[in-house]
Amino acid sequence: MSVTPADPGLAPDIDPAWLPDEALRAVGSRRVRVDGEGPLADTVRAEAAYACERFGGRIVGPGDRPDLLLRLADDSLGGEGGEGGEGGGSGGNGEDCPRHPEGFTLHRTLDRTTVTASAAAPAGLLHGYFHVVRLGEAAFTPAPAATHRPALTPRMLDHWDNVDVHPVMGQVERGYAGGSLFWRDGRPRDEPHRIRAYARLLASCGIDALAVNNVNVHATEARLLTDRLDDVAAIADLLRPYGIRTHLSVSCAAPVLLGGQATADPLDPHVRAWWRETADRVYARIPDFGGFVVKADSEGQPGPFAYGRSHADGANLLADALAPHGGIVHWRAFVYDHRQDWRDRTTDRARAAHDHFAPLDGEFRPNAILQVKHGPIDFQTREPVSPVIGAMPRTRIAVELQATQEYTGQQWHVCALAPMWSQVLRFRPHGEDGPGVAGVAAGDGGGRGGGGGLVAVSNAGADPFWTGHPLAQFNLYAFGRLAWQPDADPASLLDEWIELTFTPNRTADPDRLRAGLRHVVGGSWETYEKYTAPLGVGFMVQPGHHYGPSVDGYEYSPWGTYHFADRDGVGVDRSRATGTGYAAQYGKPWSDTYETPDTCPDELLLFFHHVPYGHVLRSGKTVIQHIYDTHFEGVTEAEAARALWASLKDLVSPARHARVTERYEEQVRCAREWRDQVNSYFLRKSGVPDRHGRRIH
Amino acid sequence: MSVTPADPGLAPDIDPAWLPDEALRAVGSRRVRVDGEGPLADTVRAEAAYACERFGGRIVGPGDRPDLLLRLADDSLGGEGGEGGEGGGSGGNGEDCPRHPEGFTLHRTLDRTTVTASAAAPAGLLHGYFHVVRLGEAAFTPAPAATHRPALTPRMLDHWDNVDVHPVMGQVERGYAGGSLFWRDGRPRDEPHRIRAYARLLASCGIDALAVNNVNVHATEARLLTDRLDDVAAIADLLRPYGIRTHLSVSCAAPVLLGGQATADPLDPHVRAWWRETADRVYARIPDFGGFVVKADSEGQPGPFAYGRSHADGANLLADALAPHGGIVHWRAFVYDHRQDWRDRTTDRARAAHDHFAPLDGEFRPNAILQVKHGPIDFQTREPVSPVIGAMPRTRIAVELQATQEYTGQQWHVCALAPMWSQVLRFRPHGEDGPGVAGVAAGDGGGRGGGGGLVAVSNAGADPFWTGHPLAQFNLYAFGRLAWQPDADPASLLDEWIELTFTPNRTADPDRLRAGLRHVVGGSWETYEKYTAPLGVGFMVQPGHHYGPSVDGYEYSPWGTYHFADRDGVGVDRSRATGTGYAAQYGKPWSDTYETPDTCPDELLLFFHHVPYGHVLRSGKTVIQHIYDTHFEGVTEAEAARALWASLKDLVSPARHARVTERYEEQVRCAREWRDQVNSYFLRKSGVPDRHGRRIH
């Protein structure tokens, strides 16, 4: 049987990330059949053909017995069964095919000589194929049949990419990966192979939606919705073969900016008509368009407040325009006063999203999703889970993560975020008896009628390694995998990624390579936390670009991000009893847990409480000694990771090794800067000497 | 007699600054004769004609008795006498004409019915004319004959203007006056009338030299020296009629960048030949070209260090190229390590210029001028006088001031700098018996064979008010006047400027206007100092743009600008005994005076010493109470100035009043921010309460 192999579409100098050809060996050395029609089935067939071409297998037709059969069984889409799935445990029940359009069932029991992935819809074929790729040889060993389907939908990447280079924020806002994959200097980047290869990587880890432009919608970007819609359609054409729907960030002021309307009032009939007609035109051009992403009344973006309307009014306006076409609006809950007076200790930015949105629960349309940052502030290294997530049972909630490392080392530092994300997704806002964050995003409980899925701000760009730091590829991969299966073990995902990306078995010392990578990546978040802002207090970064330390950098700013350190103590009192009352925004038991320093977890102590430097932590250390110790430890760990990486030189490709080595030099330099600035700052302020007498400047 | 009047060349929306037509009334209502030939005499004649056309006077010929005679008596240039002059007191000796080519003698004694200004050279005619304008009616009242000549030459403005818009620094580095008068978006601005009007303003206050581009010479700007020389010549043609010579900032790397040389080594014969040929070409195009300005081995600019050569080698290279044409090089002494480690308390940026340059005394060519910033750091609100100025008796020294208010409110705050500059110019580096700073710049004492003059970084730009803040015009005016007469009383200069600019006698209440302006401008430097960094410690500004407070903004930076505040005290120990040794760079008595807190002037205490918050100042207040008190006072004074300005609305032109009113709103807002951040910072750190119980956040 003759099939055109998929060309991965990469120039030789572009890193293959977790899809090097070597990762296709198990599939590619076998006889593969793909039963099904349509574009996605064609994609799978071409992928398999490419693998087989590389490793001696072949695509077989109906007459031959395949080793691997990927089959579309669309008659079973309406059937019963299929309650397994990884979101709720990975046990299967043997049915041939799941109901979820992206799901599939994998049969590899002893009594079958053909491993079979059955899907009810073409997207399930695609995810089934990449599941087999991830399993590698293990896919062809006996195991109970298992049905897999995504726990969360959509699994979406937001690209904060600008079309025009922004005078302050550049081509990609908070981008640390060498420019945009989609745009350059005001025009499409015009590298379709690169976008296609990106779509392939995303699909292979489970991502199925992508917003192509920054949530801060500037003048040029606003026009993507109308006269530059062709630019969006061109991207959608490249993402579609990998099952990824295209979304667009839009401006609430679009009716005025683009439509010549006198107002953008969500309740104005002309405005409503304009949005409906505009959405109609979008769908006429991009029939599978995903929907809109909106940042409104936030950090200078326009929104419904200008017209005395609520955020529900604003979101519903767009939801109604999208509804006839099956589109959704992701309406961001990141609304706060960014011109706060630092002198006013009663205003608390952490409270803002809950204050604004919780009262609106139940007012949003079924296709309006409230997109909530995982923490109440802004993607800090350590934050509590946003109380909004547990407070709106009648609203579809999407949880927003940040893969781009704005506050976590900007892809110069290794900081694997899967452990943090896993903690967030497992957090149970109402205690052990209620749904977890992942459950909320899945639509469990309450009357919300569906989940909002998981979203991450992408960390990928035109950099040859996609993410600047090659080890930051794991953050992109882990996001997709956790969105599919939120209860996945981060350590297992790391192993999975290591096997795919570094194919240790093809090296001289697989165990040393695996152990080394587990070490340098696995604990990197804790290491990063140690040498940066202590005990959940956050920020302490340099203003504007947010890289490197500045303990007081935001202390007297209008941004609402303070630590209130004085000569006696440090931290923000967010208790109900004596503070801002933020702790009371949580349901039980968390409102009680966070209320007092006695019960508040140490790692969040300074987020919730202002304590004396002599306050004793559960570790038995004082806060000030904890600050000193963790900052010395963090640098030691970063130095050790650098040395360990150096020792892997014989096992890693030269280009990748060199890039990571370069980044470690900067990480260690910057970690020392963090250590010394934070320690000096607190020694100068507290006057308490380090009990170990180490040098503090 | 028919003469073409000078057109001031201003569009109606451009502020006339200190040369409104009204300021010409005294001259313009009289009969005026100008005896002399050549372009400068023609300028004077045209100026007088313009004044007469406005106010009913007339230009008369040799047959008529004039009320004012401006005469060129070139036969007396070689004569004796003329030892008076304002630099050494304003008494005259009755001789007809001074020897200095810019000097003049004014006769307005009772026995002469014609007031006569006699000059030895055309430039003296020009300065004599504007002297009469400044005097107004007083010029026509009896007074002893007096000879006037500039104490300092050149009296130069450095424009930190970029040709291309710099991605960080913009069109004008540290410019707060609406773009460049000379350049726009990579090309000449092409507003010759504006440049001509600017030249007229400068000449009228005594300025005679101007550098047309930034001392940080970027790629495009470097080419002004060679293939874009025509752009410079066009400016020179506009400045020349007002007696102003044009200078150019050049890059030490020019032989490589522009000349295709393999090296820029100052001792390389090809490099020397290239500079000579390049200078020849410049003078062929601009015969009265002034010379070069150079920032070398400083903040990233190239310089002789790259070749193991000294700054004398670098300066002499250019001096030799210019010498055949009478040109001079201004070589800046602003050389320091801007990548310093903040942990290293032994390195002291304040020491750098002296460490680098004092050993080179005597090694510079006669036409090489060392241009020294007035303080050792960088134009702070309060600094000691640079020890370099008193340390190089065999070197021509120019003192560099900063009219553009980089650290003094960026022309949003009123901050009249004449009192500060006057203090600097009167400072005597070797005590009462040695020359003052002005004397050094004039060439007094030592074997330097000439002075280097006075330089200011210009605060003027394309703004309709020239300087952004209309009251900042006084800084430009006062610079020119102090350069001519360094011992002028700043208060008298302010009165002079008020009379010219606001012509109080033409208003309904001259005395109220004068008193109001004296108040809001006169004490503004002290007010600004009160609410910003205390007791000479400097900085505490926001990094990068330098506007507004950030107490720790530069504390952990590589820029060498620290205050070392901890819970016990604040300040930099620069003593010889226990500190960086900077105090020992001064001659006696200052090295002793600055050495101990007991003798160090309070206003410089924290520049020289780290003292406890409880240290008692001469005022009887502790340092911490002084910080609180001055910050409360500074804001109160700013608020009072704002109110006083508001009360002058009926006496000031609407446009000017509105602009200043707008600026006062921002000044008061920013002053409160300074007060609150500084006070909060030190309360949090010291724990010492305000003894008056005022609110500190």
From TrEMBL, chains A, B:
Compositionally biased region (Gly residues): 78-94
Annotated ranges, domain Glycosyl hydrolase family 67 catalytic: 146-466
Highest taxon of source: Bacteria
Coiled coil: none
Region of interest called Disordered, as start-end residue ranges on this chain: 74-104
Glycosyl hydrolase family 67 C-terminal domain mapped to chain residues: 467-694
Entry protein name: Alpha-glucuronidase
Organism whose genome encodes this protein: Streptomyces beihaiensis
